[in-house]
Amino acid sequence: MQKTAGRSSKLQRRRSPSSGHHFRRPRKNRCMKMISGYTANGDRLQQLKAFDESKSGVKGIVDKGITKVPPIFVRPPEFCGGDKPNSGHRTRTQFSVPVVDLADTVGQRADVVAGVRRAAETVGFFQVVNHGIPKRVLDEMLAAARGFHELPREVKSEYYSRELLRKVKFGSNFDLYQSRFANWRDSLFCVMSPEPLDPQELPLICRDITMEYSENVHKMGVTLFELLSEALGLKPDHLIGLDCAKGHLVLSHYYPPCPEPELTMGTSKHSDPDFLTILLQDQIGGLQVLYENQWIDVPPVPGALVVNIGDLLQLVSNDRFKSVEHQVLANHAGPRVSIACFFTLHLHPSTRLYGPIKELLSEDRPPVYKETSLKDFIAYYDEKGLDGNSALTYFKCQR
C-alpha cells in the first residue's frame, strides 16, 4: 500500500541514536512540559538511551533497590483519565471471560464451535481448558522463562538487541523511542516459524522447554483455527489455508515488582497485530480486557490458557470476530511471568494480501477493510507503537 509505504519511508529517516530502531520524535504537548521534575525533550531522550544501553531491562533498575518509578515510566496526565486503568473496574453484571472446554471436539463439536463463536464475536477473549498441553510443560515453560530473566546481566545482555530481523532477542519495550511512556516489562522474543528455529539460538536455560512448548501450542493453534473457521460458517481448513497458523512467535514476558504501580503500566492498552494469541500466565494476575467500556479482570485459572482474537483475524472476518483491547497492570507483587504465542508470519517475506474473506461478504455486509500485506500492517503497528489506538482504523475502507 503506497500510503503505508510512504509513512514507513518517512520513519526510516528517524532512528534511535543508539540502535537504529525506528522512533518518533517526542511530540510537543502541554501535558509533557514536566514529568516528575524533568523536561520531556533532551533529558528524556538521554534517559531512554541510558536505559537502552544498560541492556539490563526493567529488572536491572529494580535490582538497584529503587523506591520510586523512574520518570521515563510515568504515565503522562492524558493517560491517567477517567478510565482509571489501575482500578480494575468490573461491569455491573460482574461479567467474566468465557471458558471453552476442548475435551470433546468430536462428539460435542457443534457445542464447542458455538462457544468459540460467542466468545470471538463478543468479548474476543476466552479461556481454554482441556487443551491437551500437559501441566508439566506449562509449569516448566513458566519456570524457564523466569529463569532466563533472572540470569546475571552479563549473560542476558548477549541477547539484548533492537535488530528488527533477529530471531531471538531480549529487550524491553519494542516501542521505547516512540511511546509516551515506557512499560514496566522485559521480554524474550523468539521467532519459531515458518522457518524452523535452530535450537542453538535459544538460551540454554530455556532451550528444550521452549521448543517443546512451541510444538504443543502450535498444535493447539491449528485446532483453534479449525474451530474458528467453522464458527464463520467456512470449511475447517479455511483459515489454515490463509496461512494463519503458518508462523508463530513466542514471547516470554517478565514484569518485575513495581514500587509505585499506580504511576505506570505493565503493558499499555493495545490489541494484538496477529491472527490469534495464546497466553500462558502465572498466578500473579493483572491482565485486563476492555469490554463495554469497562476493564474486566482475566484471572489466572490453573491449567487454562487465555486466547484472544488478533487484529488480522478481525480484518479477514470483516469485523465478525473482535480484536479487543487489553492491558496488564503493574503490581507490587511479582515478578509476574507470562508466555504469549502470536500466530503471524510477522516479517517473513510473503506476497499474499489480506482482506475480508470473500465468502463473508454480501450487499448487506460490504468489506470494512482494504487489503494489506502483513509487512505493511506490521510496519504501521510498529511505527505507532502502543499508543492506545487500534491499527485497524488505518486500514478501513473510506466510505
From TrEMBL:
Its cofactor is Fe cation. The keyword Magnesium does not apply. One of its GO terms (molecular function) is metal ion binding. Gene3D superfamilies: B-lactam Antibiotic, Isopenicillin N Synthase, Chain. Residues 10-28 have a biased composition (Basic residues). InterPro entries: DIOX_N, IPNS-like_FE2OG_OXY, IPNS-like_sf, Oxoglu/Fe-dep_dioxygenase_dom. It holds the Pfam family 2OG-FeII_Oxy. Residues 246-345 form the Fe2OG dioxygenase domain. It comes from the Eukaryota. Residues 1-28 are annotated as: Disordered. Keywords: Iron, Metal-binding, Oxidoreductase. Belongs to the iron/ascorbate-dependent oxidoreductase family. PANTHER family: 2OG-FE(II) OXYGENASE FAMILY OXIDOREDUCTASE, OXIDOREDUCTASE, 2OG-FE II OXYGENASE FAMILY PROTEIN. This is Fe2OG dioxygenase domain-containing protein. It comes from Prunus persica (Peach).
